[in-house]
Amino acid sequence: MDLDKLQNQLSTLRAETTTAIAGVVTMDELRRLESQTTGKTGALGAWMATIKEFPPEQRGQVGKTLNQAKGELTKLFKDAGEKIKAGAAAAEASKASSYDPTLPGIRPPVGSFHPVTLVQLQVEAVFQRLGFLIETGPEMESEHYNFEALNIPKLHPARDMQDTFWLTNGKLLRTHTSPVQVRAMERHGTPLRVIAPGRCFRYETIDASHENTFHQVEGLMIDRNISIANLIAMMKLLLREVFSQELSIRLRPGYFPFVEPGFEMDMSCLICGGGGCATCKQSGWIEILPCGMVHPNVLRAGNIDPHEFTGFAFGLGLTRLAMMKYGVADIRGLNSGDLRALVPAGRISGTTVAEKPPC
Ligand code: PHE
Fold first, then answer.
1. Are both 80 and 157 inside the same structural domain?
2. pLDDT by residue (tens digit) across 101-156?
């Protein structure tokens, strides 16, 4: 081994390293190449190990030559590293400057009213035009307003018609919006036109058309000479307004202790078009409007003289109405918080802005 040969080989190594560095793109690749070249086990390291093979008088010179080569190579790597870092920073900067503010943005999801709210607002609008007040009552109700004042005394079998959540404080979760009838009579007297939308609760087994929490709108009209004809006309008008079409309806006798006579008004099922489905229990009809003439005992409970005044009342199933209107086949979707159940209404609310209240 002689010094000339060493110097030759070192300049070859320098040339090769310069070429290799030119092809390197990332810092990782560069570090790998550096350790293969100047690292202990790299090419230069191998040369260092050969120092002792030189005659002793040359060893100093050999060491110097190798150190000088190491310094040069290290500088090559340092410079290349800086270049790569600068290139990465420039790429970042150009990425940022390629942001185009004229491109359309990402639309944030827009909220919409719940189907039940939409129908409630619509029903309220119909009745407000007809001069009805909008009343609310407490969801935690007394036995008096929920049952007794409505002609359902203790031990009356009709209490079983509405499975009740009783509370430990002696009150209950109202099973219907009818308690607001008597509250409104007490508060406003006669003549009276009032609707009362709100949440009701029943201790029910849940299926496609039954929920333990649902919405109703109670309606009550009391005046002199109010008859069943007024009731039917009003109910037809309501359904026509809500569905924007004349619907098939049918009236059946229905029993509710607080009305006499009482009726069930059904509308043809809009989910299946009357052919029968799970929502209408295969009957093609949906029970939507229980109603009737206010029972004299209820008028008395509201301090109204039944000899002078008559009235009609109805309890509109708002939840069912929303299902019909927006084609929600399963009631369970409505309270689940699952946005997919709200999609039909979302679509409609997006196009019929008039259904939203000015707020
Ligand atoms: N409150 C009754 C119910 O929820 C419905 C109803 C209201 C019936 C008014 C007649 C008159 O079942």
1. no
2. 888 888 887 777 888 998 999 999 999 999 999 999 999 999 999 999 999 999 88
The C-alpha atoms of residue 359 and residue 351 are separated, in whole angstroms, by 17
Q: Is the pTM of this model over 0.85?
A: no
Closest CA to 302 of 152, 166, 207, 183: 183
Q: For residue 176, which atom of ligand 1 is closest to its CA?
A: 4
- pLDDT tens-place string over residues 9-33: 888 888 888 888 888 888 898 899 8
**Could you please report the per-residue DSSP string of 18-46?**
HHHHHT--SHHHHHHHHHHHTSTTSHHHH
Do the domain assignments include residue 359?
Answer: no
Atom of ligand 1 nearest to the CA of 314: 9
Ligand 1, pocket-test mutation among 146, 151, 211, 256, most atoms within 8 A of CB: 256
Q: Give yes or no: residues 87 and 200 share one domain.
A: no
Do residue 123 and residue 225 come from a single domain? Answer: yes
